[in-house]
Design goal:
This protein is an alpha+beta fold. The chain has helices spanning about 20, 65-70, 75-80, 85-95, 105-120, 130-140, 150-155, 165-180, 185-200, 220-230, 295-325; strands at about 1-10, 30-40, 50-55, 100-105, 130, 210-220, 245, 250, 255-260, 265-275, 280-290. The radius of gyration is 28 Å and the shape is elongated. The chain starts with a strand and ends with a helix. It binds zinc ion.
Length: about 325
Amino acid sequence: MQYIVLDMEWNQPWPGSPSAKKVLPSPIRGEIVQIGAVRMPRDGEVADEFQTLIRPAYYKKMNRKVASLTGIKDSVLKERGKPFREAMQAFHDWCGEDAAFLTWGFDDIVILKENLTLYGMDTAWVDTWYNAQLIFNAQTDGSSAQKSLSSAMQIMGIEPTRPAHDALGDAYHTALICSRLNLTDGIAAYEKAAKEHENGFHGAELPGCLLRSVSHGHPDKPHALAAMAGSGNICPVCGKRMSCGKWYPQPGKRFMAMAACEADGAFLVRVRLAEDPDGTLRANRLVYSADSEAAESYRRLTEKPTHHRRRRSGRARAKKAGAESKA
Ligand SMILES: [Zn+2]
């Protein structure tokens, strides 16, 4: 598999202009006017380049802001821009099959797919893509903040040698950043994170989390919680069924309970329910060790109701005593 580092510029109609009111055969957020791409045959290697201008068919008048940012004028596109189909065929031919696309940000591939769909063209060849920002963050400061291309270059000490806001210039600079990343590792971690996100695990687990799993197809909440307390209540150490205490509801369809394995002792189980597209419930289950911070906060949370119950049971005892004295 080869990497194609891609950057595009697209035009948007000026808000309120006649173009902005046009109803297109399928919606697009912007019409692509420039494609720049750099091939990376393998990790660390920057190879040949591709660039093309595209003559817009829908938003023909360049948005002032886009034009001043990119330096792309209507007249240039009219003279040198290729029709979209022709430009895309040339780009696809240059990419070849079995390409993984790298972009700086989440927008480019989404807009590329919208434009391909608008022309009734195949989109499957751009399905494999990664936002290089996330790999950069994971392999540098570990933050989740999206960084601009120029600040990422600064962090890596890369001097800009090409114009910014030019598709090929941006693609080339992105490729320089990517050539200093471990893309193989980055993509493996990315796919794991994306899968977890798809399964409903957002963000990092808390310390002390021993196991996370997801189960689908629960018809409703009682069935889901019964499964989580029953056949799905597996010990994270030995894999055997555990006993399960009472579920404590928390905001956001979350539930917690203490579970116990005969051999391995107590664990905190946290479950979050969410609706799947088919209307059934998905249960995300996380198991924490009994001495984890999560289990500690569970104990604090559940201490209060116990206190109230004790007072209530105190009154119940007094009533009962009264009844007995009457008898
Ligand atoms: Zn066990």
